[in-house]
Structure formats: C-alpha cells, structure tokens
UniProtKB/TrEMBL annotation:
Protein name: Ribosomal-protein-serine acetyltransferase
Molecular-function GO terms, alphabetical: protein N-terminal-serine acetyltransferase activity; protein-N-terminal-alanine acetyltransferase activity
Coiled-coil regions listed in the entry: none
Species name: Pedobacter caeni
Pfam families, per database record: Acetyltransf_3 (PF13302)
Amino acid sequence: MKLNIDESIHLELIGEQHAIGLYEVINAHRAHFSEFLAWGDNGQSLENFVNYIKNCEQNYLEGAEINFVVFSDGIPVGKMGLHYINTQNKCAEIGYWLSKSEEGKGIITKSCKGLIGYAFKELGLNRIEILAAEGNVRSLAIPKKLNFTKEGILRQAELVNDKFLDLVLYSMLREEWES
C-alpha cells in the first residue's frame, strides 16, 4: 500500500525491504531520537530492527496498527503509523519520527494530513489522537498546525531513558476534520 502525499512525499506500508534504509536513519540520528523515543532493543541492531518490522507486519495483519515508511524524493526519512487501532470505538493514535536533517520542511504535517484522511475515509475511524512529550516542541507543533484539540496532559505517562515524560494529548474528530 502506498499513499501519495505530494510530488515528493509518499508513505509506503512498512516491510522488511525497508529495514536497512530506516535503520540507517536511526543510526545517523540516534542521539536526537533518544531524547523522546524509547527504542528498547528494537533500534540496537539491524537484526532487532528487522524483528520489529516483522512485528509491525503482524500487527497490520491483525488490524492493530498500520505502519508506513515516510519517503521524501524516494529516500526513506522516517516512520509514521496508526497505532492502537480500536475498531469498536473507531479510534487510533498517530505516531511519527523523522530524520533530524529533514525537520522543518513540512514532511510530517503533510504526511499526517494524508494519513488522517485515509483513517477517516478508508478505515471509517471517528477519532484520531496524537500524544507528544511536553518538551518535544517540534512534535507538539504538528497537532497545533492541524487544528487538533488539546485535551490535557498525561502525567509521567512514558518512560524514556529512565526518565518519566509528561505527554500532551490532542485529538481530532471526523466531523471536525470534514468541516
């Protein structure tokens, strides 16, 4: 599956063929990512990352999540997905990460728009959430730009590198997106 975002950006359903390209992005920006992302063992070796991708593929088959590789000009630059898909309540959470060298170009904002449209139109979801660490200025800017509603702060909700982070919860309803 491929979602074309614009002339230079597209999202491609993650698969083992993406392992090396994404792992190279992680290695090139490991210190940058480690501030807000808990990689666990997934990003420690290429073998572990391949296993992570296999898990993503299995979760897709089970309908639990959909993970995409973010491409800019044909080069993998990040990852984005719909996580914790709840078919009964018709909701999911968007998660994303992007190469530091690609930040500030609108890639994630544009990709989120495309993924949100897909989630509401194709998957029939009613609610999309974005959670971002309180100090993660760039990630917090995305839901603001997309006119999500800030619902509150989940205190010490995520453990990253032995430090608990507060997460800001934003949401968008289908009726808000369509209007």
